[in-house]
Amino acid sequence: MVDAVIVGTMALDSIETPFGKAEGVLGGSATYASYAASFFCRPGIVAVVGEDFPQDALQILGKRNISLDGLKKEKNAKTFRWQGSYEYDMNEAKTLKTELNVLASFKPDLPAEYRDARFIFLGNIDPQLQLDVLSQIRSPNLVIADTMNFWIEHKREKVKEVIKKIDVLLLNDGEARELFEMPNLSRAGKSALGMGPRAVIIKKGEHGALLFTRAAHFSAPSYPLENVVDPTGCGDCFGGGLTGFLAKTDDVSEWNVRKAMIYGSAIASHNAEGFGLEVLKKISIVDVERRFNEFKSIREF
Ligand code: AMP
C-alpha cells in the first residue's frame, strides 16, 4: 500500500547556473517530489524511463521507501532529458532543450495497490498523463496538481481540463500570469478557484508562496538562504513535501495545508543548496524540522 501516488518525469538534467554546471544528473518532477514526500510517508511513483537510465538512481529512491512498482522501463528508448540554465536571478529557469523521448508514448497503467491511494500528486508532466493517472484512482481524498510553462504553451486546454478535476492547484507566479492572462496574482488565484479547486498555491521562488482559498489567504515566508547553488526541482520538492505531510497527517484542513506549505518550503530550501539530489541525500527529518521551526520564527510579529 502506498500513502501517496506521485506522477511526473524522471529525467536526466543538464544544468548551468552562475555557480557551476551539472551534466546528465538525476532529476525530473517525480524524482524530486517523491524524494521530498518520503520524509513523511511512502510514496509510489508513476513514471517512465529509458534504457539509458542509471540503475543506481533507482537504488537511491528505493532506499527511501519509495515504491517503484509504477515505474516503466522502456527498452530501446531514451529517458526524458531537460537542459536549463539560470542567470543571477535564480527564480526562473530558462529551458534550453526539452527532449520528451520515452515520455511521448507513455501510457500509465497503475499497479492495483496504487489505485486506492488517498493522496495524489499530479506532478509536472503532460496534462494528458495527469488525466490518465487520475482516471485510475478510485476515491482520492485530495488531488494536488502542478504544471509549468512548457505545458501551458503546448497544451493549454488540457491543463485547464486538469484544473477542473483537482482540489489543490500549484503553479509559480509567472505561470499563473501566463495561464490566466493577468498580471495580478490575487486575481489569477481567484480565476483558478473559479475553475473548481478548493485551494490555489502560487509559488514565488525565493520569495515564498501564497495560498488562496474561497475563505482565506495565507502567505508563506521565504527562507533567507545565503547559499543558492541550483534551484532546479525546488517547486517539485515543495509539492512533494506538501503532499507527503498531508498524507502522513491525513488532515486536509486549511490550517494543516498552511503547515504543509512550510514543510514543503523547508525541503525546497535545502534542495537549492546543491545540484540534483546532492543535499537531500545528506539531510534527515531532523534538519527539515529545524528549518520548519526557523520558518515559524520568521513569520512571528
Ligand atoms: P522545478 O525546478 O521544480 O520546476 O522542476 C525542475 C525539474 O522539472 C527538472 O528536474 C526537469 O527534469 C523537470 N522538467 C523540465 N521540463 C519539464 C517538462 N516540460 N515536464 C515535466 N518535467 C519537466
UniProtKB/TrEMBL annotation:
InterPro entries: PfkB_dom, Ribokinase-like
GO cellular component entries: cytosol
Annotated SUPFAM superfamilies: Ribokinase-like
Molecular functions per Gene Ontology: kinase activity
Carbohydrate kinase PfkB domain mapped to chain residues: 26-273
Keyword Transferase: yes
Descriptive protein name: Sugar kinase
